[in-house]
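Incident log, support desk, overnight shift.

02:14 A customer reports that sequence design results differ from what the structure should imply. Their input is reproduced verbatim below. On-call engineer (initials T.W.) acknowledged and began investigating.
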């Protein structure tokens, strides 16, 4: 059996978490613009914010949460 870290971890550092949050907020405000340009969301976030694929996916999920708050 593999030992799991106590307290859990996402494997993300605090700096990347800030980048994810920034990307999520940007996407929440610019999603329609990306749709109009027919740009895929994940590659756009990766390019604009320098995120990994995993980080871009997390940002996209978080963006939906921001959109639902408004």
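02:41 Re-run completed on a clean worker. Output:
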């Amino acid at each position: 059996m593999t030992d799991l870290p106590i307290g859990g971890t996402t494997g993300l550092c605090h700096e990347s978490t800030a980048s994810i949050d920034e990307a999520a907020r940007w996407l929440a405000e610019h999603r329609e613009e990306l749709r109009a340009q027919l740009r895929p969301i994940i590659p756009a976030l990766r390019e604009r914010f320098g995120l990994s694929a995993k980080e871009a996916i997390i940002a996209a999920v978080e963006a939906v949460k921001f959109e639902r708050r408004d």
